[in-house]
Design brief:
The protein is α+β, with helices and mostly antiparallel strands and 385 residues long. Helix content is 32%, strand content 22%.
Length: 385
């Protein structure tokens, strides 16, 4: 019998739903995940929900952390870390994989394991591999625990930029030119891979963007103006992911649009525009999170342009079989058409993040947004759907 069909005890019926906020993780986006968790913990309505913060260290240990969002902020241009927040250097949190139980257990070496009670829903705020890519979602499906956001397939598609583009192309969504270099190709024939990239540049022109295939927050991306910078850019991308993408420069405006699942289906927010960042080559990690570059919300678009990008954002959401939320990123090219760059199935939730700002402008406050996502997860069954 699956856990969602189990009869509830009187105690379960009377207590508040318990939300486990899971954050940190093993990816290069560990720090920004901690920042996001702080914002989410601040926003959860404690009169409606009990909260259990669980941090995952960079080496993969699930740690019990204090419910102290103020310690999860960027300080002196430095990112926070789960190891600084963990209540113990050795203790670990274990979530049962028995779908008949949602019990969470905490144990330390030499001590009797301690039951922390049941979890009703998980709010994962993990960015990048080992969290946003379907791995955590698969564990939660095995455990029978509802969770916020996309399922296994959509999370995996949303994380891997190659297959994301392949899915979008198959659904007729406009995608820019790109080349994929897989690990085996680079390991066996790096010169052949370089030639393929330079052939791509001969066709589409410089500069190129070299980026990890399965990373986010603009980490590991390099803008390359000519062949002299190619090897260094590839090395930087492969430092985060052995598979990397090469994309041509799309000349135009950067437009983003949020999608949120409502009772009647997904809806799009007002779009935002990311203006050129004069202090950076492009909208990179430093510009997004350290220097807090601001987007324009709502984007100064015509009614027709706004309607079109909203339509495409919802189509991208549906094409990848997403649930809960998505931020879709586009270029409005010089010929007046939209090209989809990527989707984020778990977009940033920091106070300066574009996704909550777009929904704020659309009439959904940050607190309402968090509450809607939790409620949608509680109402959604686990398993095939």
């Amino acid at each position: 019998m699956s856990s969602e069909n189990l009869p509830q005890s009187t105690e379960q019926q009377l207590r508040k739903p318990r939300v486990a906020v899971v954050f940190g993780g093993r990816s290069s986006e560990h720090g920004i995940s901690v920042v996001t968790a702080g914002a989410v913990l601040n926003a959860i309505d404690r009169t409606k929900y009990d909260v259990l913060p669980i941090g995952i260290t960079t080496d993969g240990r699930w740690a019990l952390t204090a419910d102290e969002p103020e310690r999860m902020a960027i300080t002196d241009r430095k990112m926070p870390d789960v190891a600084q927040l963990a209540e113990s250097d050795e203790g670990g949190v274990v979530l049962s994989v028995d779908p008949g139980s949602r019990e969470v257990v905490y144990s330390e070496p030499g001590s009797v394991p301690k039951a922390l009670g049941e979890v009703d829903v998980v709010f994962p705020v993990l960015h990048g591999p080992y969290g946003e890519d379907g791995t955590l979602q698969g564990l939660l499906e095995l455990s029978g625990v509802p969770y916020v956001g996309a399922g296994v397939l959509a999370s995996a598609v949303g994380q891997d930029k190659e297959y994301m583009k392949r899915v979008f192309t198959s659904f007729g969504l406009p995608v820019g030119p790109y080349v994929v270099v897989r690990p085996r190709e680079w390991d066996n024939d790096p010169q052949g891979a370089r030639e393929r990239i330079t052939d791509f540049a001969d066709e589409h022109g410089w500069p190129l963007f070299i980026k990890p295939a399965r990373a986010g927050s603009s980490i590991g991306i390099t803008k390359v103006d000519d062949v002299s910078g190619l090897d260094e850019a590839i090395e930087e991308a492969r430092r985060h992911d052995p598979k990397f993408l090469v994309e041509s420069l799309l000349r135009g405006r950067e437009i983003e649009c949020g999608v949120l699942e409502f009772e009647d289906g997904p809806r799009a927010s007002v779009p935002a525009e990311i203006p050129p960042v004069t202090s950076h080559d492009f909208y990179d990690f430093e510009a997004k999170y350290i220097d807090a570059a601001s987007g324009i919300v709502p984007a100064p678009l015509t009614e027709e342009e706004t309607a079109e990008v909203q339509r495409l954002a919802v189509e991208a959401f549906e094409a990848a079989s997403c649930e809960g939320l998505v931020r879709a990123d586009f270029f409005l090219t010089e010929d007046g058409g939209f090209v989809i760059n990527e989707i984020n199935t778990l977009p940033g939730f920091t106070p300066i993040s574009m996704y909550p700002r777009m929904w704020q402008e659309s009439g959904v406050s940050y607190q309402q947004l968090v509450d809607r996502l939790i409620q949608a997860a509680l109402d959604r069954p686990t398993g095939l759907r």
